[in-house]
Each structure stands twice: as C-alpha cells, then as structure tokens.
Amino acid sequence: MKKQIVSVLLLSLSSVITNAQPFNSKENDSPSKDIKQQKALFMLKKGFEKAFKTKQITESKIDSIILEMELNGTWQMVGVINFSYSEESPQETILAKLYYDGNWIPTYKDELYKSLEGRIDSILMYEFDGAEYMLTDSEKYFYDNEQRIDSMHNYGDYDINEVYDEYISFTHSTPDSILYKDTYTEVESGEAQTETGEGYFINKNGNLYEFYENDLGFKYRNTFFNFSFDELVQTLGSRTMYVSSEYAVWNNEDYVPSQRSTFVFNEDFTKLISGKEQFYNGIWIDIRDFNFTYNNDLLSVIETTDYQDGDVYVMRELISYKNTTSNDSELIMDGYKLSQNYPNPFNPNTIINYSIPVPSNVSIEIYNMLGQKVGSMLNEFKIEGSHQIEFDASSFPSGVYMYRLQADTFVETKLMTLIK
Prior knowledge:
- Helices cover 10% and strands 58% of the residues.
- It contains four helices and 25 strands.
- It has helices spanning 6-11, 15-19, 33-58, 229-235; strands at residues 62-71, 74-85, 91-100, 103-114, 120-128, 133-143, 149-159, 162-174, 177-188, 191-204, 207-214, 219-225, 244-250, 255-265, 272-280, 284-295, 298-308, 311-321, 337-338, 349-356, 360-367, 373-382, 385-392, 399-407, 410-418.
- The strands form three sheets. It has an 18-stranded antiparallel barrel. It has a four-stranded antiparallel beta sheet with strand order 22-21-24-25, with no helix packed on it.
C-alpha cells in the first residue's frame, strides 16, 4: 500500500491521525499488555517530531523525554527518548527505548544533521532489529542561494521486498506561492510502481493553502490557519510546525473534510496551552487532546488523552533539558554541570554528580511533577571542582521527580525516575 506523500506528513500535525494504529481490545477498564505496548511504541515514534516542536518553543536542548501511561489511577513508565548532541558538527541523535514487562527494549534511532546556516540537511532513521540498528529511512534537503527549500529526497529500505524512493522539487514562482512536483516509486515483492503528482502552496485571506493531485486522480487540500508563506519557507523540512490545520480529500465534486488539528497559544504566541485532533465522519469526532505544562518557562509535560472506540488512554511526556540557566542570564556558564543521575530508573538510591568552576553556595532540591518542592538534598558552600551526592528515596513513592541544582546564577533541572 502506498505511503502518504511525505510533504503532507511534514506539514501537518494531523499526520498523527493518519499513522495511528487501531486499538480495539478492551479488558477491565485498562489496556492489555499488547495495547499498552502499541500505544507506547506509537508515542515513541511521535517523540521525534515532538522533540523539534518542543525546541521551537523553548529554544533549549532536550536531555530526555520519559513516557508514562496512566493505568488504574497511577502513572507507569512505558518508554524513554534520550538525546545527544555533537560539539564537532551540527548533529543530534535520538535514541528511543520501550519499557515493557520490566525490560528496556531498543526501538529506533534518529540522526539529524544541520547545515552551517542552521537548516536541516538530512535525517537518518534506524530501526532496531533485535541485534543492531538498521537504516530504514532517510530524508535529504537541498536549498537555493537564498536558503529557500529547493528539493528533497526521501528513501526507505525496510527489507528486500519493500523499498520506496521519493523526490520532490520546489519552484518559488511568486513571493506568495510555491509549486512542487513529486515522483514516488515503490518496489514491493520485486515489482516497481511509480506515481507522479503536482501541488502548490498559496497565501489567501491570511491562511496558507496546499493543493495536490497525483496521476491516479487522488487530490487533497490542506489549510493552515493563521500561517504564512514566510513561515512555511522557514520551517519546511524541520517538522516544527504548531498550527491549526484542516485536511480535505476530493470526492469528484468537492473537497470533503477528513481530519483537523487545532492548537491554542498564550497571548504572545510563546507557549502552547492545549490542542485537539479530530477526524470527520459526518461530524467532527475527537481523536486526541493535548495539554502543555511549563516549569521555569520551559515546556515540561505534554499530556495526551487518546480516544479510540469508546476507550480513553492518557499518556504524558516528561521533558528534561541540558544546561538551562536562570532568567538572570541567557548564557550557559562554562564549568557548571549537572549530570544525569545513575542509575536511572533507580530503587531506592541513586548517585548525582555535579561540578562548579568557582566556590559557590550549592543547593539541590527535589520537586514532584506538579512543581511542588518535596525534599532537599543539599544546601551548603562548596569549593570549585567535581562533586558527588547520593540520594536515598526510601521514603518517596514511585514516580518521576525533578532535581534542581542552583549555584550562584546557574540553574539546571533534570528528571529522575523512582520505581519500587
């Protein structure tokens, strides 16, 4: 079966609906292990896109995203996405693991490379096959002399029986429009099939519209509300759009709405507040709700309520960051460092390492995910250098906690998970 055109997936959060798996099992008001695993895998797959959406809002480096599912009134960890950054080149690596039946299961790895101008150059996607990471998808972006998107090449190689190759070229015809051509070839069981299509983006009445039709007669329209052509040029290829959109398919008479997403910002458009995804079946039916929570102006929790066949599943993503500073300074101070606790998850003891470049009064405090202070590990004067402290969580219930280090004007917060 032909995959969705990549340009659609890059431009709309509604692709979440398109890629969703059916979950029809129901057992004693809580999902079975298979459904729990499927839901967790689905959230892990979406973690890559949400990472860049998060960075668009925070402009900070993510350290990890812990995924939890609410079961019988308690939060249970189901996965983690870890991020690493190369100092030598503009490269970011994302590793995702599923926590299932008490074991950590590697699932996928994504590597993102940027150009010197900060544009995304390429994205490599790997699946873990039980023994090693195998390259399954790649996306390569090309830009013109004005740093506008010029073309993109997508390639997928899942196995010898399923390969696809897609090339999309863009023409910036006017200041308010982009034309593009798409050639998609899929090889399945040794047989190749090629489809071609054409589309364009255009500004109209303050909204951005995309129209597309392929040689098989399939047509769609994407509408991005309160979104401009300039924003499209800036973000195409980065998967960082938080917009309200509506996707409609042509039925030989008119464009029939199929799905839509709507997101609410604060007054100055610096923070996401909530979101909703729906599909159309004669009426608009809710598929997914989002709520966004902030800590020290950084997006810290994305809670997702998923509705499917009358069942409701609630999951949340707990986001921690690398090297964030207080509002007194926007600079990361060299020599200050707070390391991730080890082991993590832990029960009941864990080690935290930190370093300071000058003698300072150092405090390390513990907070729950509501931002409430629940303990203090340290509050004393320390000399410069590396230090280590052990945290005993025997008196704490299982859950995810934040530990926050402050030394002079340097502040950094990380997440740790206690499992008893």
